[in-house]
Amino acid sequence: MYLLIGCDDLGFAILDEFRKRKVHTVVMDESPKRLELLRRLGMKEDETLILDLKSSSPFQQVRMESIEVIIVNLTDFEKIKKVLAALNAIKSEPRPIPLNPVVIVRAEDDAEGPELKKLGASEVFSANQLLAAATLGAIDKIKLRVSERRLDKVLRENWKLGRLAIILQTNPDPDSIASGLALKLYAKARNIDADLIYDGVIGHPQNRALVNLLGVDLLNAAEVDLTTRYRWFALVDVSTPANCALPPDQTPTIVIDHHAVPLSEVRGIFVEIAPVAATATILTTFLRLSGIEPDPILATALFLGLVTDTMMMARQFTSLDMEAFQYLNSRMDRTLYAKLTSPTLIPDHVDLFMRALKSSKVYEDFRFANLGEVDTREAIALVADSLVGQEGVNTVVAYGVVRDRLYVSARTSLASIHLGNLLREAFGEEYAGGHANMAGASIPVSWFKPGKAGLKRRIDGFVRRKVLTAAGVKRPQRRRKRKKAR
Fold first, then answer.
1. Section 360-373 average pLDDT
2. d(CA 69, CA 143)
């Protein structure tokens, strides 16, 4: 979460950039009129707070433990000093993990810079520099630099005997696997042993190739007693227990992710959720800041994670993503990368894809592919991956029955759809989840009672109705009123 102190015209322009990047920002300003304008534009009351510099504690309304970056956008030097003094007082308070937000200060005069840094500013920018798009990248970089120091301190000063469980997202992709490997290397440099834990399946051929060619030792959560074997947990490329194997009653020590989630749902001693395109960017930056050189194999894995999450940098990325891209590109093993990007397709998958393409049906911008009974869950995900973009359809929902459960895999290339939210609304929080462009659901077949129509047709109608209703394409069905007996 970012805190913007002072929302004049320059502050409003900065806020607009943060909102475009979906960075959760709280604004403090001395003017009630400015705050009221922001509320009319859609900001909440707890995101628009009055700045009372006469108070001994002007930040008492703010959840300071959630603030990662503070922008002090004031023109009065004396007011800036009061703000920095109040921040220093808060940071000096005893806490389990000391507050150490990045503090960016606007300076009207370059000569003020040295004094402002002595007073606690992490960096000082002029008004023109704050308006430059490059400054956003600089803020991100400073934030990760401070964050890496905090992570190092957590590991060095608070660690006790015991192994670290690095828990990946359910059905881990290249970004998740590579980022987990990078954190394992970072921990090993501090004499901490760690295991990589996953749940779900590693089904996509590229993901299996990554595990096989790199010789990655992944442990399936179903075969490990997480509650007794490990004392410490790190979530990588996932930030809540909803989409990973972390036991619900466990609080993770470390959370590192790039997916935007409500901070109220995130728990952890160390939390870094950065507005970048891939978690691989965060871990690559941490390794560089810590002076750890990844070997060509790890560099290749991180490069693959970055390019797959950004669709070869075609999707929106930041200057930090580009820095990581260039850094890893110069260190990767190109022969290994070629093997990873050309995994061999299993013939059964090709047949399944052709069958799905012929039998699938299109409604509005959705393609639905009912695969019937399927041997493995990963085959459904593979078909969903393969069907995106076929014949101009940008959103695919593939589904099939594996033993006693119906599995749904959805993919989209549209920025206007958040598939994770869509499937949660369609099937319920307990049965569905995922990210903006990739999501899934797992539903008991026992939901479908015997009827005149066969199971495949009943599933077809159920999935299409639920998804299209959640997407607003169809109206919710009304229950028919029973006729009263005469």
1. 87
2. 7
Task: For CA atoms 291, 294, 299, 303, give the dihedral sign.
Answer: negative
Residue of 438, 437, 210, 216 lying closest to 342 (CA atoms) = 210
Q: Which of 33-47, 249-263, 333-347, 355-369 has the highest mean pLDDT?
A: 33-47
Handedness of CA 423, 429, 435, 438 (dihedral sign): negative
Domains and CATH numbers, the chain: 2-131 (3.40.50.720), 159-340 (3.90.1640.10), 347-470 (3.10.310.30)
Spacing of C-alpha 182 from chain mean position: 17
Rounded to whole angstroms, how far apart are CA atoms 432 and 257?
A: 20
The pTM of the full predicted model, rounded to 2 decimals, is: 0.63
Percent of the chain with pLDDT over 90: 23
Helix (H) or strand (E) holding 396: strand 395-402
CB 437 within 8 A of CB 419: yes
Banded pLDDT at 298 (limits 50, 70, 90): very high
Within 8 A by CB and 6+ apart from 129, the residues are: 135
By CB atoms closer than 10 A (0-12, 13-18, 19+), residue 144 is buried
Asked if residue 306 lies in contact with residue 321, where contact means CB atoms within 8 angstroms, the answer is yes
> Which helix or strand (DSSP H or E) is residue 70 part of?
strand 69-72
CA–CA gap between residue 27 and residue 9 (Å, rounded):
13
Contacts of residue 215, defined as CB under 8 A and 6 or more positions apart, other chains included, come to: none
Distance of alpha carbon 211 from alpha carbon 430, whole angstroms: 29
Q: Other C-beta atoms within 10 Å of 315: how many?
A: 14
The predicted-structure confidence for 6-43, as pLDDT tens digits, reads as follows: 998 888 888 887 877 777 889 999 999 999 999 998 88
